[in-house]
Each structure stands twice: as structure tokens, then as C-alpha cells.
Amino acid sequence: MVRAFLLILAALGAVPAAAAAAAEGDFLVIAHRGASGERPEHTLAAYERAIDQGADYIEPDLVATKDMRLVARHETEIGETTDVGTHEEFADRKRSKTIEGRLVTGWFAEDFTLAELRSLRVKERLPGLRPANARFDGLYQIPTFEEIVTLVRAKEAEAGRAIGIYPELKHPTWLLQEEGIDTVDLLATALRQADLDDADDRVFVQAFEIGPLQRLDALVESPLVLLIAPTGGPYDEPAMSWAEIMTPTGLAQVATYADGIGPYLGHVLAADGSPTALIADAHAAGLQVHPWTLRKENAFLPPALRRGTPEGAPGDLAALAGMVVAAGADGVFTDDPALVLSALGR
């Protein structure tokens, strides 16, 4: 059991005491798009399954509709995750947009009202890797942020425990500049209306951009997290690189407007699974660290942790979870919360 292994190592001084404490339950298991390894992502069903499995937080990615409603989708483009392409009445909505320098063709949430989106049904985004998830295609609607909050509160009452929400704003600068939709203001308003804007509420707000987090820092008391991609830098600060931001000096600057970072897993673990300096440097700056994303399929695992040859076959996710905890992270995003919780002995 990973938990027992970590406690033994901690007693011997081989890992930080914080890692052992994390294995005891202080380590946050964040359900990435819900239990998206078992249900189509960003559906109430995926969120509920993650909650039932014991996830500490559920993570909805938020985009906006034409009539300014926040809804949960991985991207503003919805053709990949819904059946919109089969709806003849929306055939003329297909178009191409350049989003943060990348040409994307499809259908976009911001071109639909919420009522129009209600006529669509969600489908699995990775059917080749997750054919079992595709069995649920056509069953679920796109949820609003308000519905997600309602679900969480209902499940809190049922389970008798607190459940956190960890929303991510997708492309906030692009949506504001190109579509005139201010998702920062929409989310701040939604959090205030739900009475979830205080520092002690179980809410983190995350984004890959600096300006939106700085604005949110002035609008809500919720803890804020700067996401960090594998390469490049924040879209709204083209002169900055993620490499600069991950230096001690850069992390100290992040701490002036955010409470944590959400780095790509490869930034916190070296190729051999040993920790890099990032977590220790972030902690020194007073920042929490929640890396992303643990997934069970071989396609997403390092070669040493793959089992068998099929890309969609499950590998040794428990070992990878143990490495993240031993590195001293404060939590982790995962598509498979049940497996990670089991690995931690919870």
C-alpha cells in the first residue's frame, strides 16, 4: 500500500513529513472534469461519480454561452464533446476561429444560447481509449455552473461531508477580446451569488493566464491557482515564459496574486520519477502545488508504469500517485479519483 510505504519512508527521513501527512488525508484528490475516466467528462454524472468515490474537489472547466451563462466544457469548441454535428438546424453555425494562435474549426459555445445548448447531448471525447465511456453517449446535457453548485450541495447533505469546487476559466482573455464575453466577471458574480466567494469556502479558481487571476484577486477572496503548461508561457503575457515563472523569483511574483500553482506533471517529477525543485521552491514562496493530470491509461503513463501494450489498458497509476505524494505536492488532478484514493489508503 502506497500510504504505508510513505509512512515508513517518512519515519526513516527518506521523504518529507508533509508527504506522510498527505497520505493521511491532507492531500487533495481533485476529480479532473469529474470521474472522467469512467463517464463522459464535464457531466453531472461524472461529477457525482467522483463525489461518491470520495474526491475532495470536482473540477469543471468553464466557458460561456451567447447569453452569458457559464457552462462546463473542456473547450469553447463543442463539436468534439457533443452531438451538435448531427443537428441539421445548427449546420450553419460551424465555422473557424483562431483561438490563442491556433486555428480551430467546429461549433463554439459562445455562438449558442443556453436554450440551444440544452438540445444537445454529450459524448465521450476519447472513445478510442475509453470505449466504456462511450456507452453513455447521448444521455447527458451540458451542465451550467449553477447546476454544478446545486449538485455539490445536495451531495454534501447526502454524504455529510464538505465537497470542493475547483473551476477553471478557459481562454478568458481571448473570450473578452474577441467575443466580448467577460468570464472573469461572470464567475465572480456567480461565486458571490452562491455565497462561495470567501477565503474559507471550499473553492479554488484556476487559469493559465495572469491578468484574469489578478482581476479575480480584487473581486473575490477565493484561493487562486496559476496553471502552468508544459511549454510556452501565459497567453496574456507573451513576453513571459513558464520557465521564468517557475524560478524562485517568478514564484514569489505569482504569490502576490495567487495562492497556488497547477503545473504540468513533468514539471514536478523528473523522467525517473524523482522530484524536481519546483514543489520546494513553490512552498518556499507560500504557494500550494496541485499538478495535473493522473490518468490510468497506458497512453498517459511513463513507459516504466505501462502494463501491456494497448494504449487504453490500465497501467500502474498507484505508483505514479505515490511519486506525486512523495514529492511533497499538496494535491493532484486525476481522471480516476477512485484509483488514486485507493492508492493513498483512503
Automatic annotation (TrEMBL):
Q: Cellular component GO terms, alphabetically?
A: periplasmic space
| Residues in the signal sequence | 1-19
The answer to keyword Signal applying to this record is yes
Catalytic activity reads: a sn-glycero-3-phosphodiester + H2O = an alcohol + sn-glycerol 3-phosphate + H(+)
Q: Which UniProt keywords apply?
A: Glycerol metabolism, Hydrolase, Signal
Q: Which domain of life is it from?
A: Bacteria
Question: GO BP, one example?
Answer: glycerol metabolic process
Domain GP-PDE: from-to ranges: 27-344
Keyword Mitochondrion (UniProt): no
Q: Which InterPro entries match?
A: GP_PDE_dom (IPR030395), PLC-like_Pdiesterase_TIM-brl (IPR017946)
What's the EC number here? 3.1.4.46
Gene3D superfamilies per the UniProt record, alphabetical: Phosphatidylinositol (PI) phosphodiesterase
Kindly name one Pfam family recorded for this protein: GDPD
One MF term in the entry's GO annotations: glycerophosphodiester phosphodiesterase activity
Family per record: Belongs to the glycerophosphoryl diester phosphodiesterase family.
UniProt-recorded name of the protein: glycerophosphodiester phosphodiesterase
